[in-house]
Specification:
The structure holds two protein chains of two kinds. Chain A contains 22 helices and no strands. Chain A is mainly alpha-helical. In chain A, α4 packs across α9 and α5 crosses α14. Chain A is globular, with a radius of gyration of 23 Å. By secondary structure, chain B is mainly alpha-helical. Chain B is 53% helix and 0% strand. The radius of gyration of chain B is 21 Å and the shape is elongated. The chains are: A mainly alpha, B mainly alpha. Chains A and B meet through α2, α9, α10, α15 and α16 of A and α1 and α2 of B.
Chain lengths: 575, 83
């Protein structure tokens, strides 16, 4: 019986054979064993929360990317590529690469220091305690909510694709992550993230290879999508360009303009995520010296570009196949009748992966879930323990008490995430808030942190009120749109823009409001002295010893330039 | 008089060693599944199954993992380079 006939007969998309189960359960057992093996290396709070600051640039860089490669990142963006065509590549290029390079080249020297252990920790040094506590609080809430919603979504996918009971998926995933992260903290999170990184690549890299063989090459994809676009009444490059049609929102599938892309997805959202989200930056904090810390996001940028090529190409292959009736590939449909774009990646696996390989593919999806959850939890644990528990509730906590609190926080964080997953299940519209939640926290954060590294005049009061008002304005704008007070195009300067453009522009406004308020309030309040700001702002920082007299081939600047050239060439190729 | 004994710092195998072993074992299992499929083809055929992707992809993963674990088989004795 062939794949299409089986798909038509079965209510479940993928059936696992015993050999598939062997791969999946073997991987889970391996991860748990690693947690027990690594427990003896978590001796101090620095070990538990910052992996002892012993990691090479490569380990930190791979973990940096792995924390970003959560299940919803890969599955969700494959679906996005099916929906938006090549425009989805912006999430891997303009939204990621410039911010990652700026983080490595400019911001890391301010972040990476012995006295700073988190992003809220930097805010305390640069501004004051209230700014730190506020940022730590909203970051912790975001981590738990994002973690809960991701858990809910992935359990839904497992239920739809594999027929696994939703409750079992949620509890088993949470228990596994709680077990190995609580054993050795960031050491085990990073260790398993690196292992999961290779497993994820092993599971997804073959998909575009098989897809290209199936369709007949990349030129065939371009030709077929051009024909489809013309039949739908669009320009031939509607699905296969990323800038050529960005002058008018009606001319591209994402319904955005170049201004929304650069300011929204590039500056407010991209910089907000890559330069202020402690979830990923924590991996750079674990590096053993300044050079390694600066190289961490730069190495990550190469993997981000590669991941973008794999994910977007896979999405385009699925888009081509779904537009070719004889391929037999149709995306699944949700109960409300909407197309389920998240089913795209599992559908590809079901189409091409025979027994054995399907076990590897499903294990890769489970690894994505675990990497994402472990990333969320290790960041939540560090921020909760250092910046809330240690700063507010127990200022004299010993290292032993901090590690103990870290273990408790990991378990409590995951229990809260499970509660979040149940909440999301009872109110599925909450998924719409996922991106909004992130932009509510990250856009105002970057509006304060990035300028605060260059503008000495920005004061603690200005930063605090700027961040608070920016967050509140972002919430208000979102609620106004959600409850129909204003149309989504109210936020976009060019009429005719879509929902995605409105998301980008709300982030831009939140950024501008935060920055504007911070600067206005700073004009009337007292800034910190140069002595207090030494090492925290531009012009008051000296180059670290380990970076002096490096051969140019080993400098972060050299590798950043290469990454930037690749970024430019890809933009030109996909123009 | 003998010097006081320093507390021994546990040594860790490089992370690449473990990742290599995991890839090697999983690659072997995938290759084995490919041979099983060759001997008794599964009832549900996938698209391009005649290319036997589990054989060549499993072998690629296994060889990559083996090389990785072989290169990084030695425990690092410098505490600063544990992982």
């Amino acid at each position: 019986m062939d794949y299409l006939a089986c798909l038509a007969q079965s209510s479940v998309l993928i059936h696992l054979s015993p050999i598939d189960w062997l791969i999946l359960l073997g991987f889970i057992a391996f991860i748990i064993c690693m947690g027990f093996y690594l427990k003896k290396f978590a001796r101090t709070d620095d070990d538990f929360f910052l992996a002892g600051r012993r990691n090479s640039a490569w380990v930190a860089g791979v973990a940096f990317m792995s924390a970003n490669m959560g299940a919803m990142e890969v599955i969700g963006y494959t679906g996005n590529a099916v929906k938006y065509g090549l425009y989805c590549a912006h999430f891997y290029l303009i939204s990621a690469v410039p911010a990652m390079l700026v983080l490595g080249l400019i911001m890391m020297p301010f972040y990476y220091s012995g006295r700073i252990k988190s992003i809220p920790g930097y805010l305390k040094e640069r501004f004051d305690e209230k700014t730190r506590v506020f940022n730590a609080f909203i970051f912790s809430v975001m981590m738990v909510l994002v973690s809960g919603i991701s858990l809910y979504l992935l359990a839904m996918i497992m239920e739809t694709v594999l027929g696994w009971p939703w409750h079992v998926s949620v509890w088993v995933a949470a228990a596994l992550v709680a077990l190995y992260v609580s054993l050795a903290g960031l050491i085990s999170a990073i260790f398993t993230e690196v292992i999961q990184f290779f497993l994820i690549w092993a599971g997804i890299l073959i998909l575009p290879i098989l897809g290209l063989i199936d369709i007949g090459g990349i030129n065939e994809i371009w030709t077929r999508l051009g024909q489809v676009a013309q039949m739908e009444g669009h320009a031939a490059n509607y699905y296969t360009s990323i800038w050529a049609n960005a002058t008018d929102p009606q001319l591209n599938p994402m319904q955005v303009t170049w201004m929304g892309l650069i300011l929204g997805i590039g500056l407010a959202i991209g910089f907000g995520y890559w330069t202020t989200d402690f979830l990923i930056i924590q991996r750079a904090f674990s590096a053993r010296d300044m050079r390694s810390a600066r190289l961490t996001p730069i190495i990550g940028s190469y993997f981000k570009i590669l991941l973008g090529i794999v994910v977007v190409l896979t999405g385009l292959i699925i888009l081509t196949l779904t537009k070719t009736p004889q391929s037999g590939l149709t995306l699944m449909v949700k109960e409300n009748g909407d197309v389920n774009y998240d089913s795209a990646l599992p559908l590809m696996m079901a189409r091409y992966f025979p027994p054995g390989l399907i076990g590897l593919g499903i294990t890769a999806i489970v690894a994505m879930l675990m990497a994402g959850q472990a990333g969320n939890m290790s960041a939540f644990t560090a921020v909760w323990t250092y910046d809330l528990y240690g700063a507010v509730f127990n200022r004299k906590a010993t290292p032993g008490q901090l590690v103990r609190m870290g273990r408790i926080a990991t378990v409590m964080g995951l229990l809260l995430a499970v509660a979040g997953a149940y909440w999301a299940r009872s109110m599925p519209t909450v998924i719409d808030y996922l991106q909004a939640i992130a932009s509510m926290v990250l856009a105002p954060g970057v509006a304060i942190i990035l300028p605060g590294m260059f503008i000495k005049r920005m004061t603690p009061h200005g930063a605090f009120w700027g961040m608070l008002i920016g967050c509140l304005s972002s919430v208000v704008m979102f609620l106004m749109q959600q409850f129909g007070v204003v149309d989504h195009s109210f936020f976009t300067p060019i009429k005719g823009a879509g929902f995605m453009a409105a998301n980008f522009w709300r982030a831009v406004w939140a950024w501008l409001i935060s920055f504007g308020m911070a600067m206005i309030i700073s004009m009337f309040t007292k800034p910190k002295s140069d002595e207090q700001l030494y090492g925290l702002v531009w012009g008051l920082t000296r180059k670290s010893h380990d970076e002096q007299h490096l051969p140019w081939l080993r400098t972060p600047e050299f590798w950043a330039v290469i990454a930037f050239v690749i970024f430019i060439l890809l933009n030109l190729y996909c123009w | 008089m003998s010097e006081p004994q320093q507390k021994e710092i546990p040594q860790m195998k490089p992370i690449w060693y473990f990742a290599g072993w995991m890839l090697f074992v999983i690659g072997l299992i995938v290759v084995a599944s490919g041979f099983i499929n060759l001997i008794s083809p599964p009832e549900q055929k996938t698209v391009l199954s005649h290319l036997h992707p589990n054989l060549w992809w499993g072998a690629t993963i296994a060889v990559f993992g083996l090389i990785m674990s072989f290169i990084h088989r030695k425990t690092k004795h410098d505490d600063k380079n544990m992982v």
